[in-house]
Amino acid sequence: MDKVIHNLDLHSKGIWFPITISIILVLTILFIPKKHITWKELYATFGIIGFITWLSDSLVARTLDLIHLADPKTAGLAEILVYTFVPSSLAILFINYYTHKNKWFLVVLFTIISALLEWTMVHLDYLKYTGWNPFVSIAAYIIAFGFLVPFHVKLLRK
Prior knowledge:
Helix 2 runs parallel beside helix 4 (77-97) and helix 3 crosses helix 4 (77-97). It contains six helices and two strands. By secondary structure, the protein is mainly alpha-helical. The protein has helices at residues 2-7, 16-31, 39-63, 77-97, 103-123, 134-156; strands at 67-69, 127-129. The protein has a two-stranded antiparallel sheet. Keywords: Membrane, Transmembrane, Transmembrane helix. The chain crosses the membrane at residues 15-33, 42-60, 80-97, 104-122, 134-153.
């Protein structure tokens, strides 16, 4: 049991933030009115974005060792929550409000939200860059929200 508790990495600095954000985002996507997303699209988006996020983590954090979340030797509770819920929830919220008219407003808004979440985790010493540049993150957010998530929506709705 001690090993399990140790592997949850509950003693890490700033752990409260990713756990809190994960809970808030999950509750938000569950209870907000569904404007432009169905439950089926929510389900598919959660799985697909979650898979892409874990794949990205395997490449960026594990293989290339460009970032560390808390203890780099273990995938603690907060890390599991962050990778599982935050990107998927943000994509779902984006889709829920997405129209062709407001696309670029939402791209800017969600890029800012994502960058602020990342910056806060860095500021709280939960996320450490070990070769990563935050401007690459901003470019990735713009590509994700500007092109990949809208493409994902187009595929889902065909």
